Write a sequence for this structure.
């Protein structure tokens, strides 16, 4: 188990290092120059002013030097300073990331709460009319993009419930009811594709578990069908579900950044898009790194849960 844990930690560090390199280079490959954007189309902008601002921001250094300086800051907890506001990047991200985390956790909770019973029921009533109906619905859910579903929900709710607050944001601490009202539609839009995918995975895993010898033995002993499905088969079916859940959590976090634009939520997505438009290198680098690090950490935790559910994995 110790070897398994060490290997996963090393993998995590290698991935984060690779992401830091990609995040650093990617924003600099986008056409446009941060200094030119900051100075704007002004007749007083001279080459000397451009050179002075570039030197003040440290953008006149070779890319390798800039990267090593940024990496050194990361190792000490300094994510840099915003080129536009002069505030620490960590402060700007901290002020926005709470919204993204909230809608992600709500969507994840809804997905898990509905996917597990839906998948179990599809397996229990396999090849029945109810099974086919739910499978058709899940296929439709998988194919629907979250941003399109979000726009459709806004249109429908505005037509049916004009007074319902479909867009905007209210902090949870200021107005819990108002916050949950405004989070309802983004949560649904973000959760539906993941819910559909997870329920199909649960169904497949449950059908596989129900075909095992120990299930036939339990039935031969007179164990009730409900106990066979929801007690004996369910535990083993959770192994592939946990793996898919880790991937889905990362997808939800990334999808939340897009859904925020549809519902005008002041989260990390709007911050990142603004940083890209402004070529705010430190901010977009740190945001990409944090989003990716969150995805990697979630998958690391998933590996640990996988090993806890199946101790044989820790021996590999």
């Amino acid at each position: 188990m110790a070897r398994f844990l060490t290997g996963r930690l090393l993998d995590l560090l290698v991935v984060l290092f690779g992401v830091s390199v990609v995040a650093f280079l990617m924003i600099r490959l986008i056409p446009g120059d941060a200094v030119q954007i900051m100075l704007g189309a002004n007749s007083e902008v001279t080459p000397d002013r451009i050179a002075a601002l570039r030197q003040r921001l440290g953008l006149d250094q070779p890319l390798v030097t800039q990267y090593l300086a940024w990496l050194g800051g990361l190792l000490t907890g300094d994510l840099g300073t915003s080129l536009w506001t002069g505030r620490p990047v960590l402060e700007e991200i901290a002020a926005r990331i709470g919204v993204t985390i909230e809608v992600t956790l709500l969507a994840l909770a809804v997905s898990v709460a509905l996917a597990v019973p839906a998948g179990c029921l599809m397996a229990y009533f396999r090849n029945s009319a109810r099974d086919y109906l739910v499978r058709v619905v899940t296929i439709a859910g998988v194919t629907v993009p979250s941003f399109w579903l979000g726009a459709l929900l806004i249109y429908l709710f505005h037509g049916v419930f004009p007074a319902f607050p479909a867009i905007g944001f209210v902090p949870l601490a200021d107005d819990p009811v108002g916050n949950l009202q405004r989070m309802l539609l983004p949560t649904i839009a973000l959760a539906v594709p993941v819910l559909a995918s997870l329920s199909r995975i649960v169904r497949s895993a449950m059908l596989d578990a129900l075909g095992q010898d120990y299930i036939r033995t339990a039935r031969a002993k007179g164990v009730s069908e409900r106990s066979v499905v929801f007690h004996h088969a369910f535990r083993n079916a959770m192994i592939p579900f946990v793996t898919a859940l880790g991937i889905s959590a990362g997808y939800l976090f990334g999808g939340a950044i897009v859904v925020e634009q549809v519902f005008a939520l002041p989260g990390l997505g709007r911050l990142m898009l603004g940083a890209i438009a402004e070529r705010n290198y430190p901010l977009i680098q740190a945001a990409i790194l944090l989003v990716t690090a969150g995805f990697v950490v979630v998958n690391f935790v998933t590996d640990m849960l996988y090993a806890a559910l199946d101790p044989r994995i820790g021996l590999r």
Summary: The chain has two domains: 1-76, 89-309.
